[in-house]
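This section describes the prediction task in plain terms. A model, or a person checking by hand, is given the sequence of a single protein chain and must write out its three-dimensional structure as a string of C-alpha cells. No templates, partner chains or ligands are provided. The sample shown here is typical of the held-out split.
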Amino acid sequence: MKIVRIYNNNVVVAIEDGKEYVVTGNGIGFQRKVNDKVDKTRIEKMYTFEDQQKKQFHELLNRTPIVYFQIAEAIANKAIEELQIELSNQIFISLTDHLWYAADRKKRNLEIPNLMHDEIKSLYKDEYRIGLWALRLIQANLGIQFSKDEASYIAMHIVNATVGNQVRDAKRIVAFVKDVQTVIENVFGISFADESLDTSRLSTHLKFLAQHIFVKEKKEPLNLDQMYTLMINKHEKMELCVENIFDIVKLNYHYTLSKDELVYLMIHINKIVSL
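The expected answer:
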C-alpha cells in the first residue's frame, strides 16, 4: 500500500491494487513522504469512496481543515459503536462539510436555528444523544460552543447515513426534492446532474425540509424579515425562484412555506448560483 497524499500525521490517502483508500491512524503520516509504503501496524480505519464521492471528498479536503474530517470520523465511530449501526461512508463527506460551514457561520455570528430540533430530539433520542456528545468534542477540539440546535443537525446526518434505515415518507421526500430542484434548474438554468458539494448540501437540506413538512408541525416565527429581504436581493431571479417553489409546495404538498423556511432555502440556493 503506497501513500499518494498526506493530509497530516494521522490521515493519508493510499493506493493498493489500483484502489484508493483514505487511511487513518495515530502517526500514520508522521515523517512520511508521497510514494512511501504505509505502516500497516498503524492503520486504525480505512475508507473507500465511489467515483462521485471521491471527487467530492478531494474537493472538500482541498478547502477544509483536516480537523473537521477527524471530528466527523470520531462522531461517526461513536454512533457506530454505541448505537450498533452501520453508516454509509457518505457521512464523512456530508458531516465534515456541514461542520466546516457551521463553524464558519458561528464565527460570523450567523448561527441558524434548526426548525426541526424538537421533533428530532423526540423521534431520534439516541442519535440526538450522540449529537450532544459531539458538541462537547467540538468545543474541546475547536473551542467553538454550539447551541443544542447543532446536536439535532448532527443527529439527522447520522439518521440519513444509517444503512438500511427506512426514512418514513421516503417516496414523498424524493418527489419533494425533485420538484424543488426542477424549479431551481428551470429558473437559473443549472443542472443537478453532476452533484457538487454545494448541490449535495442543498439536496440534504431539502430532505430535512421535506421531513419537517410531512411532520406538519408549525414553529413560532423567528422574525427573519431582514434576512429574507437581503437574500431576495442576492440574485435578480431569486424572488421568482422562491415564489415558484412556494407555489409548487402549496399545490403538491398542501403546505405553506414560512418566510423562515424560505430564508434557509435561499441561503443554500445562493451558494450554487453565485459560483
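For orientation: The radius of gyration is 20 Å.
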